[in-house]
Amino acid sequence: MPVTTAAPLVLSRNDRAELERMARSASLPYRALRQAKALLWAADGVPNEEIARRSEVDPDAVRRWRRRFEEKGVAGVGVIAKGRGRKTWLPEGTVAEVVRVTNALAPPDGSTRWSTRTLGAYLGIGKDSVARIWRDHNLKPWQTDVQSLERSTLRREAH
Prior knowledge:
Layout: H1 13-24, H2 30-43, H3 48-55, H4 59-72, H5 94-104, H6 116-123, H7 127-136, H8 145-158
């Protein structure tokens, strides 16, 4: 059975120049740099298996990169395909509940504010999940309204 190799990738002059710039970049993510180099090798007629060996990826990854480049051009280089990556394991509505409890309820232990550990234990999730949700929603329970009220009260009393 004869071995079939993919035809060289057809690049315009502008696409080649952009891929070469990306392959030399020191600021782009490694994924984009690696894909740009692989696409340049594909344009030079290097077989997918050899590109995969040089890039330290699976030959199917090289085929996906070629297909994405043919569909989206340079804009698709280094982009993580939709549906890839880590999925959330938190049940539906957990993020909204963390935000609501953080803003509306006081801890049952009599503390003045929630910590990631106390809120995580209260809701049955991990402290790191609470911290990530707080960061994503710019919540800072340690900067409470009570502190700002105290400062404003002190200012009024000083005048």
